[in-house]
Amino acid sequence: MVALRPDQSERLVALFALGCLLLTYPLLSLFNRSGTVFGIPILYAYLFGAWALLIALAAIAVSARQPPRPPDAPTQS
Amino acid sequence: MLLGGVIVLISFAYLGVLFAVAYIGDQRADRGRSIIARPEIYALSMAVYATSWTFYGSVGRAAASGPGFLPIYLGPTLVVALGWVVLRKMIRIAKVHRITSIADFVAARYGKSALLGGLVTLIAVVGIIPYIALQLKAVSTSFEVLLQYPQVLMAPKGQAVALWRDSALYIALLLAAFTMVFGTRHLDATERHEGMVAAIAFESIVKLLAFLAVGAFVTYTVYDGFGDLVSRAAQDPRLARMLTLDAGTHGYGSWASLIFLSGLAFLFLPRQFQVGVVENVNEDHVAKAVWLLPLYLLAINVFVLPIAIAGLLHFPAGQVDADTFVLALPMAYQQESLALLVFIGGLSAATGMVIVETIALSTMICNDLVMPVLLRWRALAIAHRADLTGVVLAIRRGAIVLLMMLGYAYYRVAGEAYALVSIGLVSFAAVAQFAPAMLGGMYWRRGTRNGALAGLTLGFMVWGYTLLLPSFAKSGWLPISFVEQGALGITLLKPLALFGLGGLDDISHALFWSLLANTGAYVAVSLLGRQGMSERTQALLFVDAFRREGPPGSSWRGSASVQETSALLARFLGPARAESALADYARQRALPSVQQIRADTELAGFSENLLAGAIGASSARVVVASVVKEEPLGMDDVLHILDEASQVIAYSHQLEEKSRELEAASAELRAANERLQELDRLKDDFISTVTHELRTPLTSIRAMAEILQSRPDLELDRRQHFVSVIVKESERLTRLINQVLDLAKLESGGADWHSGDVDLRALVEDAVASTAALFRERGVKLALELPDEVPLLRSDRDRLTQVLLNLLSNAAKFSPEGRGEVQVMLNVLPSSLRVDVKDNGIGIDPSYHEAIFEKFRQVGDTLTDKPQGTGLGLAISRQIIQRLGGRLWVESQRGRGSVFTFTLPREAPLAGGGA
Predict the structure, then answer these.
(1) Which residues of A touch B302 (CB under 8 A)?
(2) Do B234 and A23 touch (CB under 8 A)?
(3) From CA B243, how far away is CA A35, in angstroms rounded?
(4) What is the ipTM of this complex?
(5) Closest-CA residue in chain A for B289?
(6) What is the pLDDT of residues B9-45, one digit of tens each?
(7) How do residues B91-142 score in pLDDT, each as one tens digit?
(8) Which residues are CB-neighbours of B604 under 8 A, at least 6 positions away?
(9) Rounded CA gap, B572 and B189, in Å?
């Protein structure tokens, strides 16, 4: 049992707030226009980019507290 | 040409594999080598969120509204970040209280209320039925489409298929059978289904791979990557609108409300609760799911837009339903095996959802709807059946069949009218109603049972009115005028624009009104009402879940015998499990055997907790109550509680008192210390003064004596003079020493006091008589003013005489020689006697009026004036008068003589006189 580390919770709550900000109006409207980036529509590029960023940040936030994995549970993703 | 038989065969083969996975999972779990005890499996099982709605419907929605399919997955992405806080708390609570469903959770939180559990179950069932219908529709549609291979033909709409020829019916029956085998295979009917979780995780992989396969095929084989598809779409005005979010009609508002709605649904859908909370093996697995699950959702959405564009480019408008593009595209390009894989992927998405959802719902129906009713109505009959595990399982199996049939019925009636996504959103909005009672229950102590009841009821009613009834109306069940003109023709009651609220899409509109009514009623009723005893206990246990360790304490006040308890457990859990549970219980308490277990409240609490895992919290309460001999809360208990409380209060009062006393004592000590230092200084002064005063007469005595010794020839009269000086100085010395001793005695309180009746008038006369010689010698006139009679005093005669003599001799000494006049007056005052001694001497400056009563203070120029006394007389007099309860003071002006006055109270306070 890993004790609850408040800073971990706070990071994830902050991440939640960041996600709410990134994925809704008004920031969303800045990218809601025609045109493409590397052949991908700007809006989709932005949404998937922000989404991937959130996932990466979440992975970083929780991995800092991960206990050492036992050898029989290899990391896979 | 794919024959229906081939498809069916492959489907069965797939289900067989699924069953094998589940079987292995269960076997491993039984041998204690769980394969699901790893975070990746947990995250994958949570991906049951992605159903056939995701698999087929996302493309349909993308074709209709561009990026509008994404919020459904962004919501969970955001919420799962909060999962570390919210989900973990739910898991902790569920573990401690052995909660097996969301209805159980709500019921347990609000005082194990069976009514509340039933209501939540009802809402969940009514809300989820359309969702199950959606899965049936998806599978049956994909089956029908696949049957037409290689042609891509849509099943004709609006034509009623005969019941026995409807593939959806068979699919429903098949899924029901499959779910029964999966979810209720165990005879012990406990809460965990490890095999099922393993199968669900497996299905999550299958559906992801199938979707990625078709996506990659369409994007990279048929077309030349994302860029190619996007640039083609951009040239077609019909497709170009898919590339941006339509900000016009509902736009960003719908976007945000869908994120919000899907976030809530992710937490409160019964199947999400089942895999996320109930089936969770280890709280720490949540950490990995926080990023792995969003990654899964992102992956399954990457190819949605390309497939939608490709479908719209390939098929003529309106010919092929966009919901089937995923399947129709590989068919159109003659990819037989890919089409089959897609079908299997869709099947796995649907079966995964149906299995978990119906297991979760059947648990709720059994534990929170049927069992409480059975136990209450026929409490004796049901509670005394030898083995109830069979009954429990039968109820659950019946519930599964019922749910599937209801889903099928909804599909027959309303399914054709809606796209997949719309049906799903109706269900989402229904489960969102749990949010206030659940979140409030976890974080707000004051939330009450009545509040939750009111909130859920209102929210559910508004949801039904604004979403469910319109869907019936659109399906022709209700007159369409209900939607267009409002109920009873009242415009304000139009279900899609309640109270005239426009500008929102149907879902946002319903979500707003229902959650407003729900939260409002919950908060208002909670604030106005009061919590019962058990409600308050449960509220504390839930809200402070992280601050407590271990199972909750027993809330029972009675006990059941071990035999009865064991029999009860065996009835619901089966004999083997009951026995091992009791053995564990004994081992935990370090008892040698089950026979040693004491029938106490702890045992009752333990059995309730254990049974809650099988039949739900409220039913467990009822069942245990049937064997526990509950001792009513007697007067003794109440008094005991009161006693404890008042003891605590008294103790705290005592502490306050003590600290106040300590403060006072330390202040006293400080003062005493200062006083001691002052006294020490005074003592030093006193000693130096005394030695000085003693030396003066000694010096003259010694001088005279030396003269007498060295001059034996001195004439007689000179010798006489010297001797008389020596005698006088010796007397002075003796007097001084006596007075010093006297003062020391007075100050230390060691002086002798003799109480007796004193006639002050006689005393004054005596004193005057004994000082008459002195006055005469100095030629001072003495006048007396005495009343005829004075009341007797209870006082010390000798001491008073001492004071009077001192005052009189002072008066004689300080009056001018020859023309001095001294008056002595005695007056009787109402409460005291007063003596004044008045002279016409040089007087005393007012600044010295107090100083003259100090030791060795003589006023005047000590260098030139010959000391005329010891300087102790007045100090001793004042000590005496004060000791006798009176006052001694002087009134004087320089050059106008002085009046020394003392008063003595007529009621003498000389208590304990001779002390």
Answers:
(1) 48
(2) no
(3) 9
(4) 0.82
(5) A59
(6) 888 888 889 888 888 887 887 777 777 778 888 888 8
(7) 888 888 888 888 888 988 888 888 888 899 999 998 888 888 888 888 888 8
(8) B554, B556, B558, B559, B560, B565, B624, B628
(9) 8
